Amino acid sequence: MIPRPTLMPESPAPPSQSGKATLVATCALGTEPALKQELHALRVNKVKGSRGSVAFEGTLQDAMRACLELRSAMRVLWPLHTFPAENADALYEGTRSIPWADHLTPKHTFAVEATGATPELRHTGFVALKVKDAICDTMREAAGARPDVDARHPNVPVLVHLHDGNATVSLDLAGPALHRRGYRPEGAQAPLKETLAAALLLMAGYDGKVPFVDPMAGSGTLAVEAAWMAMQRAPGLDRHFAFERWPTFAGEMQGHWHRLLHAARARVKTQDVPMVLARDWLDTPMEHLMESVTRAGVDAVVRVERGDVRKLRLPVGPGMVLSNPPYAERMGKDLQILGLYRSLGQVAQTWEGWTVAFFCAHPRFEREVGLPVERRWTLHNGALKTELFRYAPMPAAAEDGAAMPPEEDPQ
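Below the sequence we write its predicted structure tokens.
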């Protein structure tokens, strides 16, 4: 069973245009350190991690900036109320206590998503329906009419999360999850969500200031995320968010959002960006890789090559190699995959001065690679328990070797 994210249990202050409240950013289990690192970089206060989420104190403007800038977060939530919800009646009454007319009008649509469970409330569909009824009844009393539900494109998405007998009802500022950056090719079955790829980069220590190589790039998610980091490009720059459809968006909130977008666009670097190399061997991944690079607008930064990782030769670092090697479920032949892992360990020893990290679910990966692990993290890639291994930089023969574009072994 996959552990469920835990939202902060404290009852936060309600949102306002200028006042501060407790916000929650959710993430993949195990990637909380990356998300905390990002929130500290945004200079918000009271950053506190939990399982699958990180709470922080901020204003509505901070929440919008989090949607725009956070690379490893899946959602940004503004909790409205946390209350005991031991049964359906308590859930209904607790939801009714929220002043929904502050956030909705009868002319705007909404939708409710439910996560988690309590001993008596185990069906998320029923929980969402009960919260929906409470919102509609409250709005009918306050405004004389109820808003419509739009499950696909609501103006105001609402999330209710059940945990330890409590319910937390929140506004979802993002709408579609933040991993939807817009560059993934149609039909590409990428093994990594964009937010998880960004978290791996941050946890492995990539800062966008040194060359980056993914020698088994697949559809290119790690390479694109690394390029955007190197370019200082905000991951939410070319997508829309749910808060842009809120009834309260027009005016001061919209003006602040446009200023955030303008500043983010002005910050994007196009010159003196460290090299990013993405390589693969198979035809279909190469097609998706090239399309991802084009759709993400990083053609000038990411170099795409076809090549066998076992023949990859790199100049003396510094730099970072990070990859998600295939495992038996994707390859189908366990002996073949174990041989690849042994080859990875051998070739990685030739990458002098480079920090090397691999993200893999195979239980024998560490043993077959055979390199001393500097640090490891246990994460979840969807339902799959996976480990991120980081190795110390390979000893460099030349202390002052400049990082140059990689070169293929001529053999």
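The CA atoms of residues 328 and 334 lie 5 Å apart.
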